[in-house]
Write a structure and sequence with these properties.
Layout: E1 4-10, E2 14-20, E3 26-33, E4 45-46, H1 48-66, E5 73-80, E6 86-89, E7 99-100, H2 108-115, H3 124-127, H4 136-146, H5 150-155, E8 159-162, H6 164-173, E9 179-180, H7 181-184, E10 190-191, E11 196-197, H8 199-205, E12 215-216, E13 219-224, E14 235-241, H9 242-249, E15 258-262, E16 266-273, E17 284-289, E18 297-304, H10 308-316, H11 326-331, E19 341-343, E20 361-363, H12 371-397, E21 404-407, H13 414-424, E22 428-431, H14 436-448, H15 455-461, E23 464-468, H16 474-490
Parallel strand pairs: 1-5, 5-14, 9-12, 15-21, 21-22
Antiparallel strand pairs: 1-2, 2-3, 4-7, 6-8, 10-11, 13-14, 15-16, 16-18, 17-18, 19-20, 22-23
Length: 497
């Protein structure tokens, strides 16, 4: 009997395949970065064909490292960067344009036009989302408006749209055009109550319904793999957007449980149960997951655009460090930020502000500030932005967070995790398997084929690795946070058009 599950984790900066055993432990992994394209200010693109090529390579690599074959794999799960949009030809499978990434801001004017006199909240009651450049729907419209012949081809039924999960499913199964509820809920095109595409919104955005993939649950058999050949015949049985997958992998399976993922951006999700909870404080209402025919589970989400990407920027654009891991050592050369605050509004500000007119700023500079202070300010920016989201989440839910489960690449940075506990005033807990995004997709796939019996077994597998308790006194905590909020104000109203 096959006792392993493979998860394809297609993220903003890389594609990874991880193989897990029945206990939820990592057996092997392989990973490849893909190129980031910045054709204009505020534009961010990926090559969908490069992502697909990397997916084939890392899948073969993970199997080879573990010495496993397709017959050893019970199922495959897919998790992905969510709002990134791909449009391709239904017959040839060729993309008509690069994938427009979730960080891209080119649709700002379009979002303002769509909002009209109602503003950013025009579709919030139905979709749980503000009108923002973040989401996939306006990106589709941009492609149809700017790629020669694309709109007519779409009207003729020749083009498909998909977030990255759909793009991979299409290629892996030889043409199945499907998506899951978590990814569909990030397009501004799905009704949260019915879990179906909203034809009225699609029409108002100028998007033909024929482009949209049928919506499925997060845990069911979608179809069998044809490519890559090393996994031929294995069922794809789980699909979750990356942050929902991390929530599932963290075993946040009851209302009131929350996790925060520290990756390219930060994403905090609070499980709110089987009823969507409208936000009054700048959060998103989204689908958390749906298992087969069971009721969908919803979440409140705080999305932060730039956290780990700021460390990458410090490395690649400024050359202050040669690897991301070096930032902790550099930040550790000083005791505090020296009065400097870094607000990384590179793509505007996401939750809880939703200000596309904001741009990044470093404030509080004096001759005293050195490289170590700037490195520390970079790390602290992640913790302060998370504090903003936690405050909004506490206000929306009516219950204060008492502990924060964390995951993602940045949680290996112990200086950051201690400061996060300090600025929140609650314990921060890292699990044994910190890369829970892939684990969540594996769990969803394994549940669909009976490898795991249910949610109780998933809870049983979760284990804590490290806990950080707050050490900062409350007066100092609130003083630093007040300075951060002043810094945020300095970034607003920078972009006039």
């Amino acid at each position: 009997m096959s006792q392993y599950v493979a998860a394809i984790d297609q993220g903003t900066t890389s594609t990874r395949c991880m193989i897990f055993d029945h206990a939820g432990r990592v057996v092997s992994a392989d990973q490849r970065e893909h190129r980031q394209h910045f054709p204009a200010a505020g534009w961010v693109e990926h090559d969908p064909l490069e992502i697909w090529a990397n997916t084939r390579k890392v899948t073969a690599g993970a199997l080879a490292r573990a010495g496993l074959a397709a017959s050893d794999i019970a199922a495959v799960g897919i998790t992905n960067q969510r709002e990134t949009a791909v449009v391709w030809d239904r017959r040839s499978g060729e993309p008509v344009y690069n994938a427009i990434v979730w960080q891209d801001t080119r649709t700002g004017r379009l979002c303002a036009e769509l909002g009209g006199s109602t503003g950013v909240g025009r579709y919030r009651a139905r979709t749980g989302l503000p009108l923002s450049t973040y989401f996939a729907g306006p990106k589709i419209r941009w492609i149809l408006d700017h790629v020669d012949g694309a709109r007519q081809r779409a009207r003729d039924g020749e083009l498909c749209f998909g977030t990255i999960d759909t793009w991979l499913l299409w290629n892996m199964t030889g043409g199945l055009h499907l998506t899951d509820v978590t990814n569909a809920s990030r397009t501004l095109l799905m009704d949260l109550q019915t879990l179906r595409w909203d034809s009225e919104i699609a029409d108002e955005m100028g998007i033909p319904m024929s482009m949209l993939a049928p919506i499925r649950s997060s845990s069911q058999v979608y179809g069998k793999i044809r490519e890559p050949a090393v996994l031929a015949g294995v069922p794809i049985a789980g699909v979750l957007g990356d942050q929902q997958a991390a929530t599932f992998g963290q075993a946040c399976l009851s209302a009131g449980e929350a996790k925060n993922t520290y990756g390219t951006g930060n994403f905090m999700l609070l499980n709110t149960g089987t009823q969507p909870v409208p936000s009054r404080h700048g959060l998103l209402t989204t689908v958390c997951y749906q298992l087969g025919s069971h009721d969908a589970v919803y979440a409140l989400e705080g999305s932060i655009a730039v956290t780990g990407a700021l460390v990458q920027w410090l490395r690649d654009n400024l050359g202050m460090i040669s690897s991301a891991a070096e930032i902790e050592q550099l930040a550790g050369t000083v005791d505090d930020n020296g009065g400097a605050y870094f607000v990384p509004a590179f793509s505007g500000l996401f939750a809880p502000h939703w200000r596309s007119d904001a741009r990044g700023a470093i404030v509080g500079l004096t001759r005293y500030v050195n490289r170590g202070h700037l490195a520390r300010a970079v790390l602290e920016a992640t913790a302060f932005q998370t504090r903003e989201v936690v405050d909004a989440m506490n206000a929306d839910s009516g219950t204060d967070l008492t502990v924060l489960k964390v995951d993602g690449g940045m949680v290996r940075n112990e200086l950051l995790m201690q400061f996060q506990a300090d600025v929140l005033g609650v314990p921060v807990i890292r699990p044994v398997v910190s890369e829970t995004t892939a684990l969540g997709a594996a769990y969803a796939a394994g549940l669909a084929v009976g490898l795991w019996s249910g949610e109780a077994e998933i809870r049983h597998h979760w284990a804590a690795d490290r806990r950080w308790d707050p050490e900062m006194d409350s007066q100092r905590r609130e003083q630093l946070y007040a300075q951060w909020r002043k810094a945020v104000i300095r970034t607003l109203d920078w972009v006039d058009d």
